């Protein structure tokens, strides 16, 4: 008997999940969890609502709620949907819960102590009317590749290209619709991933079962590619 941890992609907190979410990540993981349990393995199948980032804040603003209230309500909605489909989660948690917060802060502290966090100056769109910087989905505009007029600042849903907010043509604020924007300097923290890429690859390779179909090395090799 083996102890097996199975996770599926965390659904964003905004909006009711659809069959694409179910079939794309949750159902395959659920089938695998049930299969491994049936074979007698000790399985822990974990998922959660992703309550961080711009999707949560934008959706809460559209609903006229503060972010915490919105996330509290939507977590219950998504949990009920998962229960209705009989997904066999052992844990369906929240990215905002206290243990996850403590763990994330611990990782950030250790990375900083080891010199793996660096502050850099970036150029970002600033909304004068909203009096705030506008990261990724806070900016919409015309895609420079396919001319789709409702592309977001992180990706164009029409052609699938990944974008930066400053790539958009005729950008406007997704918060207020204002076009009174300018590009300003702002400071951000970066993980110096190239400094640990070799160690991460070595760690994964040493733990990859020989001759197995273990899928983790494939994305990890991409993420750690110098």
Automatic annotation (TrEMBL):
<keyword id="KW-0547">Nucleotide-binding</keyword>
<keyword id="KW-0963">Cytoplasm</keyword>
<protein>
    <recommendedName>
        <fullName>Methionine--tRNA ligase</fullName>
        <ecNumber>6.1.1.10</ecNumber>
    </recommendedName>
</protein>
<keyword id="KW-0436">Ligase</keyword>
<comment type="similarity">
    <text>Belongs to the class-I aminoacyl-tRNA synthetase family. MetG type 1 subfamily.</text>
</comment>
<keyword id="KW-0067">ATP-binding</keyword>
<dbReference type="GO" id="GO:0006431">
    <property type="term" value="P:methionyl-tRNA aminoacylation"/>
</dbReference>
<dbReference type="InterPro" id="IPR015413">
    <property type="entry name" value="Methionyl/Leucyl_tRNA_Synth"/>
</dbReference>
<dbReference type="InterPro" id="IPR023458">
    <property type="entry name" value="Met-tRNA_ligase_1"/>
</dbReference>
<keyword id="KW-0030">Aminoacyl-tRNA synthetase</keyword>
<dbReference type="GO" id="GO:0004825">
    <property type="term" value="F:methionine-tRNA ligase activity"/>
</dbReference>
<feature type="domain" description="Methionyl/Leucyl tRNA synthetase">
    <location>
        <begin position="4"/>
        <end position="210"/>
    </location>
</feature>
<dbReference type="Pfam" id="PF09334">
    <property type="entry name" value="tRNA-synt_1g"/>
</dbReference>
<dbReference type="InterPro" id="IPR014729">
    <property type="entry name" value="Rossmann-like_a/b/a_fold"/>
</dbReference>
<dbReference type="InterPro" id="IPR029038">
    <property type="entry name" value="MetRS_Zn"/>
</dbReference>
<dbReference type="GO" id="GO:0005829">
    <property type="term" value="C:cytosol"/>
</dbReference>
<dbReference type="GO" id="GO:0005524">
    <property type="term" value="F:ATP binding"/>
</dbReference>
<keyword id="KW-0862">Zinc</keyword>
<comment type="function">
    <text>Is required not only for elongation of protein synthesis but also for the initiation of all mRNA translation through initiator tRNA(fMet) aminoacylation.</text>
</comment>
<dbReference type="InterPro" id="IPR033911">
    <property type="entry name" value="MetRS_core"/>
</dbReference>
<keyword id="KW-0648">Protein biosynthesis</keyword>
